[in-house]
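Problem statement: downstream parser choked on a complex file, so we are re-checking the raw output for the nicotinamide-adenine-dinucleotide run. The parser issue turned out to be on our end (a line-ending mismatch), but while we're here, posting the original submission so the record is complete.
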Amino acid sequence: MTTPATPTTSWEYAPAPESTKVEIKSQYGLFIDGTFREPRSGRSIATINPANEAHLSQISEADAADVNLAVVAARRALKSWRRAPALERAKYLYRIARRIQERARELAVLETMDNGKPIRESRDEDIPLAAAHFFHHAGWCDKLRWASPTADGSAPEPIGVCGQIIPWNFPLLMAAWKIAPALACGNTVVLKPAETTSLTALRLAEILQEVDLPPGVVNIITGAGETGRDLVAHDDVDKIAFTGSTDVGRAIASVTAGTKKRLTLELGGKSPNIIFADAAIDQAVEGVVSAIWVNQGQVCCAGSRLLVEESIADEVIEKLRLRMRSLRVGDPLDKNTDVGAINSRSQLERIEGYIRDGIAEGAQRHEVSNATLPAKGFWCNPCFFTGVQPAHKIAREEIFGPVLAVMTFRTPDEAVARANNTMYGLSAGIWTSRGSKAYEIARQIKAGVIWCNTFNQFDAAAPFGGYRESGFGREGGRSGLSAYLA
Ligand code: NAD
């Protein structure tokens, strides 16, 4: 009889790296009026792989003259695009969605190389959801009069030329969230991706060429904050849709105030994830993992404050510690990887600063110990803090990294008070086996999106957006269309 192997808590997996055979040009121009062109500025920015610091490409840096060219092209294209039959617009959106599906592997690999997120997430979440947004909005094109009824029953009018600025955490997905509803409603677009993650937006530009989208309907201009500022300040832009940090959102709001520009802001968050004693605890612990460690915690709606009912706190913390230990941190292109690289050195330094603050304020840090982190690249082990006070910096400020602050509560009222004790209001999670309690708590929480017994679930038909300092306006579903209709 053979002796059974001793159970072990660490399993070795055979590496399962995704092939990196995707074409990346050494230099990308700006996508204006249907073609790639050299920037007038003559400047470019390096884009690197945050998992190994390898140089991937040079992207152009648009200056005010380049921004103007893109806006002029969008204005010219608007004349015919807004009058195009609804089904004609839908045809293009369907084509884009299908092409994203057909090129999904390539887009997923590119996203992972440029952003640092695990291939499992870019392959199974980001890219399919990006395609879903185009499919969903294709279906709306000829139904806008029901989405937003007008007095005489005619189809509602688009706003016009939309300047759209997006961050680096979900690069292609954010581009899809912005472009799809704008086009469905008959607007034209000038999109500025984030400077560290422009490659999939530029690949999307190639897809727009492949599907013969009329020139100028979508223009993609790359560059850093200065390019975004030029776009916001341009006189001939009718609407700004911004997703990014609350500080930049505030600056944009002050520039657009007093002008005729429409504005929607999708900003930061510090979302509560509340576990009641009557919850299914193992399921809730899994929910904590997807709330804070997906995409290395670089998620605006991450459940970064865990509120646990005091009577089950020890059990939840112990289970969370065990579960955290099983996370595989490392090469984002390996299909076994759960937690990849932080997007940039500056973001890593920001996260490390918060971790130091948490320790200095007296909270206890529990972290996954992984001795095999790659030598190069930007890495941060997932961790959580116990002994956190509501006044601590790690409980108040958005960290935008894999760092969780755990606090406890005694009564439902205290849970609500602690959940709402924030300047933000983007999302929340409630874990309970009682539907009436979930409803009662959700009613009192000030957040744009509330999940019950799950977290970080997205659907093109479900509106997403914030409250308070997390911004205003919705993206997705019928509510998201109103942000693009006059
Ligand atoms: P960021 O605000 O620094 O940058 C976002 C984008 O704005 C980038 O494209 C950047 O180049 C551009 N930008 C920078 N300064 C600008 C200016 N003065 N004028 C115009 N554009 C400017 O944010 P980030 O660090 O890229 O992203 C992280 C932040 O985004 C986090 O706070 C996160 O919560 C937030 N976010 C929110 C949502 C949401 O839907 N609410 C989604 C994703 C990310």
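For whoever reads this later: The two ends are 78 Å apart (CA to CA).
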